[in-house]
Design a protein that fits this description.
This protein has two domains: 149 residues, Rossmann fold; 54 residues, Alpha-Beta Plaits, CATH 3.30.70.20. The chain contains seven helices and nine strands. The longest helix has 18 residues. It has a five-stranded parallel sheet, sandwiched between helices. The protein is an alpha/beta fold and 221 residues long. The protein is globular and about 55 Å long.
């Protein structure tokens, strides 16, 4: 989620928009009614898409509601312990047929769909800005594997984790990594310098592209 937030945060005036989470597709439909001043943005994880998001999406298609839906597809049910869901192709005991998110949307009649790697922040921001300027139901599928699940699987297999990052001498103390990207591994010292708590850094390097001074680099673990 850090990558999605950072990828769309800059140069977008969030005060012009409503946001909805969880039961978001249904809430977003309601927020879009009789609303001529603020665009509506809704978020769903891919597991929530299946277990509670579909009725609201159907309702939005049926009643021609106007909002942008961002589906965060990380291939797992991260919020409750990384269980599988219908798009994964496996349940808790066996291989099953995959039910892809995009094909479900297309089958329901959604024709305005964009897909992007959530870590490609410039492209993600571009797609969000384009969608916000369009009418009707727009869906952006932001895809990237869950890094917490990935690092857990590395540990279980005995493989090394990716190297954490460090903040180098180029840091100009704009604090984008702390305030905008808001990764908890970034810590602020009393003297105003920024450092990385290695135990919290998973080494996915999604933060590197957020630094305006190119001060973030890999560190040997």
């Amino acid at each position: 989620m850090d990558a999605i937030h950072s990828g769309i945060s800059s140069r977008i005036e969030w005060g012009k928009y409503f946001f909805a989470w969880g039961h978001s597709s249904g809430t977003a439909s309601g927020l879009s009614l009789f609303n001529d001043t603020r665009r509506v943005v809704a978020f769903l994880g891919d597991s929530t898409f299946f277990h509670s998001g579909l009725p609201g999406i159907v309702n939005a298609i049926f009643n021609k509601h106007n909002f942008t839906l961002i589906v965060m597809e990380n291939g797992t049910t991260a919020m409750t312990g990384h269980q599988n869901h219908p798009a994964v192709g496996r349940n808790f005991r066996e291989v099953t047929q995959k039910i892809p998110v995009r094909k479900v949307l297309e089958g329901l009649g959604v024709d305005n769909i964009r897909e992007v790697d959530a870590y490609n922040q410039s492209k993600l921001k571009q797609y969000v800005e384009e969608a916000l300027a369009e009418d009707g139901l727009k869906v952006i599928i932001a895809k990237h594997p869950c890094m917490l699940k990935f690092t857990r699987e590395l540990r279980r297999s005995g493989r090394s984790l990716p190297n954490p990052v460090r903040v180098g001498n180029k840091c100009n103390r704009k604090y984008i990594c702390v305030s905008d990207f808001a990764c908890p591994s970034y810590q602020l010292s009393d003297d105003g310098s920024v450092w990385v708590q290695n135990d919290l850094c998973i080494g996915d390097r999604s933060c590197v592209q957020t630094c305006p001074s190119d001060a973030i680099a890999s560190e040997d673990r």
